[in-house]
């Protein structure tokens, strides 16, 4: 029995580590999150031979080629690469039909107002300093340098000794890799345990449609389309292709790393050729060259991130048109010569999709990176086998094989797409989707009173002159608020007054050592109620401009907001469309708070009719007819959580910002000085940043509960002795 255990294959040990890690992660939850360090250490150990291996194998492989073989390699391999790209893109775009119909919205993200720089292809691909490229781990640049030197060796005489050195070095690196591979089951166990223990169910629910579709595309490409293409066009069977790539697929899946399995892929392809007795003296050299070349180009696994861009269009209610998909495919292919984390924001911006969708993409990387890795492995296997068969003229004749492949691909893709659409529709229950903004709350640290109307006792104006000493003597700080001003001051589902300005006002009262009262005001009519002392301080995202600072005193800016436009039906082209329409017809834009700003905008845009409305809700409920609503992006995203059929657009070419702050009456100089100093102190200690992340970026909507685990939630073996005793 013991001998059987130790005779298990590497893929079996890897699977054991995967399953065991999953069980441990689910059992202990967040307690095993630290194991990710072990997994990272194993991956770094595996990576130490990769760049040297690419360097020596490319130089030695190209240097050993004849001129005729080099020409064949350039022509034939290029055809195969284009074929694989086309198959991947067709599969990805076909999967868009699996998305059911739904409208959703999200919190504001700072990425909305920032543009991602395009990929720097020069630095990625041109090794101006090869040693720097080696040190930085710039794989494409290393490949370009190695190919250039290897091609030079084709025409060089007396190269045998140098090429033999590269060959021997490559064998040594493979031996080191084989030793490092023995630690892989341990690393896989640690990575899986950490991921299973820390990834929350909520995160998975937010991504379930995308993840299911992404997994479906990965399985289609890795186990149906690409293997079927190989089996139909080469002498190798589907089963043989699966067998030689099995270890590499499993390892790439659990580590989310393709680099470490390059030697495994190389060995598998060589063994498959030897098994069929198709190898010749150039076969091994070709394999050594083809794998590094293929790795330096975008593979089918990388192209899968384009599916996220298609998903984002569906998610925000603005699906990508079929006519736009070729542009997305070509641009995505070029952008993916760089890093995925650069390409995704770039493609979102290209298709005029909310940049904050990138945050959603990052949440799912635990799954997506692994699916991309297994597709990348099968892409490399397909590229090597197809290219080598084409170069050596070992392809099956087109006809029945191509027809079988087309039938298998169409049927397999159709079944997967229909299945995913049915599963997604069943899992995605729109009626259960709640607005996270209305559930948010913060418990105040001081007693408070919230009024729905102005108290009669304050109408006499006896508090028109207010200072800090009087506020402390009466024991109450009176705050004027604007009802329904999300996310600054609004009522949550429990009927509690909440919002970023409300929370900051509570903290101010706490620091003063007094209770707090919230008194409503209406619209932007603040000069009179402040001057007559209806309340001490006015809040609710009050815009600061040249006119208002003459009427009242302001604190230093609490926030800097970004002017935006809210439009119906997720009109992603709103700015361009409205600008064009304004030349031929009257365009109507609604505005609530920013009436003073509109006075300046009227001069810049004479063909735009600005309609003043009492409240932003009038636009969303249809009470006021307009083509769009002028509002801050921060407020606009909050409103779309209530009305997800609307979309927020921000101008990237003409961004506009404005400050908001707290206001006091002009005569209350003592209170103004205190408020000014207090705001400056809170900015320095990071309090406003904390509140900004909570209310504006939506961190307050995330449940602050421990990750579910068998240890805590089933067996109740937590660290609280009182809880254990209670359970007993």
TrEMBL record:
Transmembrane regions: 12-29, 41-65, 77-102, 137-154, 175-197, 209-236, 248-265, 289-316, 328-348, 360-391, 403-428
Membrane topology: Multi-pass membrane protein
Cited SMART domains: PBPb (SM00062)
GO-annotated molecular function: symporter activity
Primary location class: membrane
Domain Solute-binding protein family 3/N-terminal: 476-696
Keyword Transport assigned: yes
Gene3D superfamilies (UniProt xref): Periplasmic binding protein-like II, Sodium:dicarboxylate symporter
GO CC entries: membrane
InterPro entries for the chain: Na-dicarboxylate_symporter, Na:dicarbo_symporter_sf, Solute-binding_3/MltF_N
Localization terms from the record: Membrane
Pfam family, one: SDF
Keywords linked to the UniProt accession: Membrane, Signal, Transmembrane, Transmembrane helix, Transport
Protein family according to the UniProt entry: Belongs to the bacterial solute-binding protein 3 family.
Protein name as annotated: Solute-binding protein family 3/N-terminal domain-containing protein
Organism of this sequence: Neiella marina
